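#help-structures
NK: newbie question, is this the right format to request a structure? protein is MFS transporter
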Amino acid sequence: MPGRNLGRSNTPSGGLSPRLLVAVTACWYLAQMGYYAQAQLFGPVMERYSLDEAAVGLIMSQEVAMYAITALLMAGPVTRFPRSSIAFAGCALVLAGNLIAGFTENFEVLRVARLATGFGAGMIGAAGVASAASSNNPQRMFAVVSVTWGLMAAGGAIIFPYVTVPFGAKGGYLLMAATVVLLLPLFRWLPPPQRNLQEEAASQALLASLPPLKRFAEKLGVRDAPNKEFALVALLALFIYEVGQGAVQVFLEQFGLRAGLEEYRIGEVLGIAGFLGLSGGVLAAWLADRYGNLRPALIGIATNVIVAAALALGQSPIAFAVLYLAWNMCFYFVVPYILGIMAEMDPKGRWAVATDAVWWLGAAPGPAIGGFLVAEAGYGGLAMLPVVVGVISICLFYFTLRRFYATQQ
């Protein structure tokens, strides 16, 4: 198959294959494209179907939930089947879902189309992550792809208003369909999985012998991971925290409109400040673990949720731009420390891998909850959500991790 020449032996040890880098970047962008477009589609979808925030938030939550669940379910298939084939199949669903969403005037048809899009996006994302994880230097691959994906996402946010302002939601969905067609050929460079048939047979036999709950834990790779009593509470804290982040994310364009900005300027802010926000991760890399993982994580979460509340309440263009940049920086500052905490609980990284799944599962209910709060209590109600869930998650993290560190000592 076309991707076979991208195996480990064709790239110098520690180096990155340019073709694989391009293919993984395309996977990440197409997989997450629908989620990050929701903020700029929220208003156009409300206008097109004459619905309130609660109804639109619910359909967007369903799409993200489908993405997260599919990515989990694909953890096994991406180790057995050609990743390029999985990505191509996912692209077919994303393309069809966006085309249907672009042309339908029926909201229930739109709901089905977005569920299909979320399913396809989960397939694409799983294929991309698995390909990056099996590269010569996974850490470097993920770091570089974070930047290349960030550049593409910034460009996408800037371009989006140029189709949604004149053409509404239809323009946004058709732009995403066109993007799929443009990037789809790059997936032929995804490498095949390194298969071990004996290990696969043993793994399938083990799964068949386990009860449902343990089978799910085995698929996540955490059935035998240590420190479950601490890790599960930490993952719950992360889930709760991410609900607030998902709610704020989907209303970003609405915040900008309330601040007096037009859609084109909002797109520029979302693109440029969103990319600059990645510098929060650079700051975390510079600080490293000189202050441990817990203290920086808690400070980052506290700052993030306060800024999120201010972002929801702000009505100044300058405040919107500055607060959005600060919100992004705080989030990307927190990410490596959360992963560091989970890695401390299991040096093999199994809890850290599960963290990525929980991140998306936590973001999924955010749009629905945020939409309900705005419909019932306005933006003041939405502003309270990240603060409340932030306080709960900080308390859970603090008391759980204090106990964990005490047991380690």
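mod (FA): yep, format's fine, and the tokens are attached above. Residues 1-195 form a domain with the Growth Hormone; Chain: A; fold (CATH 1.20.1250.20).
NK: thank you!
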